[in-house]
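If I may wish for something, please walk me through the protein I am sending here so I can picture the backbone:
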Amino acid sequence: MKRNYISGNINELSVDSIVWFVSEFKNLTDKNLKALDTCTNGALQHIVETEEFSGKNGETAVLLKPDCFKSQKIILLGVGDKKNLTHDSFRKACGILSRKKSLTQSKSVLFYFDNFEEAAYFQGAIEGYILGSFKLLDYKSGESKKSKNKLSRFTFAVDNKRLLRRLETAVEKGITIAEGQVLVRTLGLTPSNYFTPKDFAAKAQELAKKYKFKCRILDENAIVKEKMGALLAVAKGSDEPPRFIIMEYNGGRKGTAPIVLVGKGVTFDSGGISLKPGLNMHEMKGDMCGAGVVLGAISTAARLGVKQNIVALIPTTENMPSGHATKPGDIHVSRKGLTIENINTDAEGRLILADALDYANKFNPQAVIDVATLTGATLYILGYAGAPIMGNNQKLLDRIMDASDNTAEKTWPLPIWDEHREQMKSSIADLVNSGGRPAGTIAAAAFLENFIGDWPWAHIDIAYVDVEPAGSAYTPKGITGIGMRLLVDVLENWKKL
């Protein structure tokens, strides 16, 4: 993506399209829009009077070959009511625009932020464009039939020169963050025969080398030596051996305790012996999205130069049925030494997270945040709209909620009560891996709580928000990558708890 940044007069720039951001209005009073109306011989006034365009979010109007401009067309893009504008207003508007032929047939474009000055708006706009233009992976033989976006040259413009540095910094940051989220989407959509635990480990090593952070891989023998019995129990049914990925980025002061991120990395979840229904089982290639979010977050943090020490842990395996698979009723010994009665082999995510959360103790962390597509019960709590969060430290939960506001990735806290903890006790072992249907999302967090050391912890259950069922403004149907922007914001704005 070739790009440059300018201020002042945009009339003399030879670009195919100018995208002109406009807040909602009733009458043509803005001086720049009045001048544009003069250049178009009253065309703008006409579309306003006929109510074809009023600046509502995502609304567009195209003005062809305006007299005073060298561009081929001007696309007016509505961002909504100026009193209620947020970064997500720009993200949504640009996401909608990114798929319109009025833009995608252009080779060069100028984004003009007329009378807008906030960095969050600049950042949101480019994030929306990149995320909205994301296309599903294509494995069809022969030449792809998908329409290709021709855009390759971008110019970003503001009125005042004093805003130039702010503009460039915000847009560059937005590109980096959006690319991190696209990484999560891509990994989550990759078929599991192309993305095994071994492939996941290789991808982590590739990104570590590219963005200069450390990466170490534990193979199955090393996992056995670490006594990760819960992870090994899930992996037993698969011919693909598990991996345990350890990444370290040191952007903070030497000796400062790290923030540890943990992600569930089940590259395909059949449910194991407790087999899932066949309907939509193909979507279970995306059961590693928690790990994808964590990989995206640490690599994006490294790219941004976040001033924190970060550790990311990914236990990755398949969950498959076979003659040597774990069976319901089996007892597993976790790395911590706690015994777990396996009630349901489809409650596997919490098993692999248990060993990873215990391993996090080695780093004496400031805090630990785990992310997982853990429970189907989330659908009945927040639906597809947001992710439940649970934990043991209110300040950490508040920090995540603040990040939700900053990124428009919605979360909401749930309690963990003693009744939920009792639900996860076994009569023949220390714990059960499934407490049944009641409060399933909270009960899963109550299970994980047993493997937390003496440090602040938060659990983010992204089941169902990891998938967009129909398609929205900047999220095409499929894997969303939600959680990546959230974690990066948490890390960027970290304060000692």
